[in-house]
Amino acid sequence: MRHFAILLLRRHISTLGTNLVWSRKFELPKKFLCGPTRRMVQTCAVKFKSNNESFNTEADDEDEEKEKIRKEAMQSALSTQTYFNSKHRNKETFEVMLEIYEKTNPTKRGVVEFIFAARKHLVGYNVQYDLDIYKKLIQLLPEDKYVTQNAWQSEFSHYPKQQDCIVRLLDDMEKRGLCADNHMIELLIKRFGEKSNPVRKCYRQIYWTPKLRKANPWPVPFPPISDPFLIAKLAIERICTVDPQSVVSVWQSKSVPEALDETYIVSGQSPTQQELLAKLPRDETIFVEGPLDLWFGRARINYFMLRSDRTKLYEPQDPDDISNFKIPFLFEPSAVVEAPSVHEQEDGTILAVCATGTSSRDSVLSWIRLLETNGNPALAEIPVVFSLRAPRADVAPIDKDGPVTGDEGEKLADK
Questions:
Q1: For 338-384, what is each residue's pLDDT tens digit?
Q2: With contact defined as beta carbons under 8 Å apart, do 267 and 369 qualify?
Q3: Which of 268, 291, 263 is nearest to 357 (CA)?
Q4: Where located (predicted)?
């Protein structure tokens, strides 16, 4: 038995050559390694290792490879937090970041964390409305790895972390008005299968997004614009759609003498409103109210309106109301009264609307002066009261020198 063990050891060493440590790869039972056999085997192993300086084993290679992969994974996980800290924030830089991650991480380790980090920086790089960027984020996931193989996997959310990541990415698209296309569905099917949650959500999104996008009678430009002047002009045009004859004018406050603010003024008024303004008594006070909030898509602007008190209107009568039936042969005929216009509301008559670049009192005063010189000469005789909201700045008395402390400011506010 002892000679048999020695022969097996010699044959194994001669077959595998220098890439062997017998004590790890080739193990004999303990009953063979006792007495002189154990000492002889240990001597052979030590002599074999001392004669070969580049002595490595297959097990050591596997351990080193695993350690290398672990370090690379840790490095990629740490660098995910600093991938998008570039000073040049544009689409080209964002695409370069995705290419770097794909080349440095062929095993796709930490891809979910990377996609979550990329979602946070979409707005910073101004690519939140680019459909190609969302497709490239989906393409970071490996193909055929998360595909469901049976009905149980599809019902119990196979690879839930990866599916939830893509579902949230589709939620971001839906909130921003983006709609998936057939190419995106193909990408999702290759990665999750036909019955997965991302593919189902993508189908629902393709069905509902076009319907809801066309439901607004005053559509917002897509992708959304960021120019305040264009937003103000489109917002005033939306307000003036109640009267097809309304005219939207754009003026500059610097055309008014002694104007303090140099900004644009977008004004909206119809010929009917000009007639209502001209018919007002010269002793009646009209008011400038605002700033009022108007949401145009995801942008909020402030606008002002010129309003007069409610005029005396006749009581509207419903001719189809049988409870108030009158025989024309027995009662005196009623007077013919002109129906009120759309600008004559219950709380007052709206005479004009505007939006300025600074929303300040001086810009609104310039608007009134420009209205006077553009078809409304009655404003020179009618008193105008500015019922504007107080500015959100610190209020200080003009008859006192020095800054106002917090306690004094609270007392002034109480007064």
A1: 778 888 888 889 999 999 998 888 899 999 999 999 889 999 999 99
A2: no
A3: 263
A4: Cytoplasm; Mitochondrion; Nucleus
